[in-house]
Amino acid sequence: MSQTTDVKQISRRNFLRVSGLTGTALFLGFYFPASGKEGKVVAGADANELGIEMNSWILIDTNGKVTIVDHRAEMGQGSFQSVPQIVAEELEVDLKDVNVIFAQGNQAKYGSQITGGSSTIRGSYKNLLNLSASAREMLIAAAAAKWGVPKSECYARSGQVFHKSSKKKFHYGELVVAASKLEAPKDIVLKKPSDYKLIRKPLHRRDSPLKTNGEAVFGLDKRLPGMVFAAVERNPRLRGTIKSYDDTEARKVPGVKQVIKVKMKVFQSYREGVAVIANSTWAAMQGKKALKVEWDDSSFEHLSSDEIYSRMKEALNTKEGLSFKSQGDVNSVIQQAQNKIDVIYETPYQAHYCMEPLNCVANYQKDKLEVWGPIQAPDWVQDFLSKEMGLAKENVIINMTFLGGGFGRKAFLDYPHEAAVISKEIGAPVQVVWTREDDATQGPFRPGVSYRCEGVIENGEISAFKVKLAGQNIGHMDGGGKDKPNDSASEGFVKHYFDSIKNLSIQDVPFETPIPIMWWRSVYASTNGFAFESFVDELAIQAGKDPLEFRRQYLKDERCQLLIDKMEEISGWKNRKKNEGFGVAITECFASTVGQVVKVSKDVDGKVKIDQVWAVMDCGWYVNPDIIRAQVEGSIIMALGAATIHEVTFKDGLAEQKNFYAYQMPRITDAPPIEIHIMENSADAGGVGEPGLPPFTPALTNAIFDLTGKRIRKLPFNLASV
User: Fold this and answer.
1) Number of domains in the chain
2) Is 439 contained in some domain?
3) Where is the Aldehyde oxidase/xanthine dehydrogenase a/b hammerhead domain (predicted)?
4) Are 204 and 247 in the same domain?
5) How do strand 256-266 and strand 269-278 relate by DSSP bridges?
6) Domain co-membership, 544 together with 670
7) How confident is the model at residue 28 (pLDDT cuts 50, 70, 90)?
8) CA angle 644, 375, 234 (to 5 degrees)
9) How, if at all, do strands 359-365 and 368-373 pair?
10) What letter does residue 106 receive in the DSSP assignment?
11) Are the CB atoms for 324 and 484 separated by under 8 Å?
């Protein structure tokens, strides 16, 4: 997190002096000065006095109630459990006594609020630990002062401070007023992991009961007095416009109140549509079906999938790309080699298909706009709507609800903008709900990417490693510089390969289409991982070496070596049998490294089946092992679908898959046994929600090669027909 607003110089004593927000509560947070990355503890009264926007994490009231402000979204990844689990550990309170509320969008106060890049814990855990420990020490100091005893004779537990010898105790609520007037401790000693009572424990998620008994509020659950409902017929091709529309039949649908033309910003374009406003979502959707709209899509190409991939391949074979990484003299080695590998890998476009379709509630009133919904990036939405709607930022209030999945799609800005525009136009609060077909066909999609991989093996070692990728660059969608390579060109590739491969080149061949694209779980690592780790496997086979030992040869970092040791141990790698195929892959993204081994065999009908998946996660410091296992399992199942079942294809510029019947998901019967292990070390926290996805597909296809001798280089493939 970062803070961009600086304030006047203040003394350390004045800055760290903590007093209550109202004198009746202990209200602690972090202030992030523009000049430094480290947050500093500050209290509510001081923040107001100094003009500081404070990242307010913890409020303890006079009843001893602890409230945590969670600045990130909860979309299934576990923020609603992990954040309070961290705070309760160092604050010494029972987890059941901690209340969690979602923060409103406010980057000046909370720093980055984007729930993406697997960043929630790794970006804030140190601040959370320090803040919680600071609050605990202030409460202990307040109790010691009341008793007139040394602080060293007191300790905190379960929301109370105890005096060791006398057994006297105060609950936190009795101490907050006195504690709020103390100076924050200068040096905090955090617990050792061996002393944790909550962190590292597989505690049950606090949001699970809410989501099973109906108490959790998702975007679709939000209701406001006088709210109406809208469904929008949008241009199915991003850059087209409305030529004309006939709403005669739509207005005849019972419940339909109004039909208006709208547009929402999608990157640097505006997608046009016709909104049907009604007294229910059902009526709005029926009115939408009755619309007759003629589109003008004449100003851009309408590409089909075959044309897209043909152009990618031509670009890879005829063009040198923009250099992302270059070391040694790759081209010279390849040109002089008598024997080299030169292959193409292809990955498809994918859609997000969150179980909860896009939706948003907006209420525009004069110079104020308030929004509620499943939003991954409330601070981005606040900033964007402030500019687009011409409102002061403080008058744009963004409220997060629970999300029924996000995967990057709900960090986008188009659907809140559309709801805000409609609310302003009709002068009433409105809920806009996208149908599954809207969600599936409008995009933005994960970009399909093709890779040309060239390599040379000499004396059993890699003497040249060259990868060129051609695929749409997400950075270009917002007008990013097209003279620079994709900054995620090596995402997923373990960085230690760069230390050990002398002649290496990674290039990005610029490639554009009119199709809108954006982030998808693990972003480019989801496609890069397949190409890079499949190609490493091909080089291992060319070198005549064991694929796992080949990786050990190049990943010399101690953590990588220990990870490989664990993979070898749990999978029984050295005891592989005939008629079994074993494949391995190791990828890195968002500061975590994950290795996976997949075992396959043939069933009685001769078809390939997945017998077992072993995954080893090295994410450094972590909170809840059950959440990690759930995220890795979910990532593997999502990767399985993207590798063997679903893809988005285009015909005449339109997405062909419109619902689950065409974009099928893995079923329970498709899910293989999965065994997950977490590495224990003292490294900084890495991401958890996404890094488990990239290694699965190459591990699977490498296993299929080991079993059948067939090398799969194009996704998706049909597992039953391999």
Assistant:
1) 3
2) no
3) 213-299
4) no
5) antiparallel
6) yes
7) low
8) 70
9) antiparallel
10) -
11) no
Cβ count within 10 A of residue 9: 6
Two tokens, residue 606 = 């001769």
Judge whether 442 and 653 are in contact, CB under 8 Å.
no
If asked whether residues 541 and 566 sit together in one domain, one would say yes
Question: Which helix (H) or strand (E) covers residue 89, if one does?
Answer: helix 79-91
Largest CA distance in the chain: 84
Indicate the pLDDT class of residue 44, thresholds 50, 70 and 90: very low
pLDDT digits (tens, 9 = 90+) for 573-590: 999 999 999 999 999 999
Torsion angle defined by CA atoms of residues 434, 435, 440 and 444, in that order, rounded to the nearest 10 degrees: -10
In this structure, which amino acid lies at residue 531?
A: A
* Residue 398 bridge partners (DSSP): 371
Q: What is the pLDDT of residues 271-281, one digit of tens each?
A: 999 999 999 99
Quick one: three-class SS letters along 316-375?
A: HHHCCCEEEEEECCHHHHHHHCCCCEEEEEEECEECCCCCCCCEEEEEEECCEEEEEECC
Q: Rounded to an integer, what distance in angstroms lies between the CA atom of residue 689 and that of residue 699?
A: 19
CA angle 361, 364, 366 (to 5 degrees): 170
Based on the fold, state whether residues 245 and 201 are members of the same structural domain. no
Query: 660: domain range?
Result: 319-349+446-721
Nearest to 272 by CA among 229, 233, 231, 230: 233
CB of 278 closer than 8 Å to CB of 253: yes
Tell me: do 206 and 224 sit in the same domain: no
DSSP secondary structure string, 403-436?
-S--TTGGG-SHHHHHHHHHHHHHTS-EEEE--H
Domain end, chosen from 370, 398, 433, is at 433
Nearest to 111 by CA among 158, 64, 53: 53
pTM for the full model? 0.93
The CATH number that applies at residue 631 is: 3.30.365.10
Residue 291 and residue 234 in contact, taking contact as beta carbons nearer than 8 Å = no
Q: Which strand ranges, in their side-by-side order, compose the sheet holding 341-347? A: 322-327, 504-509, 461-471, 449-458, 341-347
* b/e sequence 116-125, b meaning 16+ C-beta within 10 Å: bbbbbbbbbb
Under 8 Å between Cβ of 711 and 581: no
Neighbours of 52 (CB within 10 A): 24
Q: Is the dihedral of CA 397, 400, 401, 407 positive or negative?
A: positive
